[in-house]
Amino acid sequence: MTEHRGLDLVALETFLSDSGVRVDGDLRAELISGGKSNLTYAIVDDSSRWVLRRPPTAGLTPSAHDVAREFRITSALQNTEVPVAGTVVLCEDPSVMGAPFTVVEHVTGRVIRTKTDLEMFSDADLEACINELVRVLGALHNVDYQAVGLGELGRPNGYVARQVALWAKQWNRVKDADSADVDRLHAALAESIPARSESSIVHGDYRIDNTILAPGDRSRVAAVVDWEMSTLGDPLTDVALMCVYRHPAFDLVIGEPAAWTSPRLPSPDDLAQRYTIASGRELVDWPFYLALANFKLAVIAQGIHHRYEAGATVGAGFDQAGQSVPEFVSAGLRALTGKQG
Question: Can you give the pTM of this predicted structure?
């Protein structure tokens, strides 16, 4: 039996059986992803296939790896228009396998990560796929979070003001000597916080590669995944971040040619308009939300650069993230001044 980091198949089999989950034969596992976020394994027996998620075995930041939170959100969304994996079991007892973990049903489909992955799409397929992605985001924001039992997920009142303060605090932890433009962007955001905003469940990281597309039907999302950043907040922050991820500089942040930055996809303005049509929600104070999304990505990119310079990154793809910071800062300042060019 292959040994997998952070995974004890014997203990898992006992826990599943004790939880009323039928196990048919010995469990086997295959690592799907690990190292940058939660460890994710495909778990199979002789008749079933599941996905197990647990926090990393080192460098744990609890708020960033809250698998129990993910499980509760996706459990609450089971009977909504938002497609998610079927939930199976949550273990919050660290004595079982060293950390909390979740097991959900395996969703068959395709994850589109890079521009190369988009080559399988015709223009018509891609158009249908984008419309579906936008429709699903609108459906998420229209879920009655009180009715599905997620009223305690977060604090929607004052959400955008806290976001501005949070990312400014993060910037101060990782900034370098030349931060005048970032400081100017932060000050402008702090002065432009909308007086009123709506509240909904927000995903926090929505784009094509955080979904699984249905096999044989690229116009249907089989499941939305990676709910680590989800909370109650302002739905327009989700929309703006989805649009700002379209910036070509995002390739530098993730260290590869991302599918979501492909010129084959609609422009940010087009995506925003499609969202308005799909959701029925107007993009009030839209320049502020675009600027905030750019600010957030600039800080994230600087954080990657800071860790790279300190020798704290593992693997390739981290060396150019810092080059994107001025791109996002400039875009944020342009958004607030109404200059989109």
Answer: 0.91
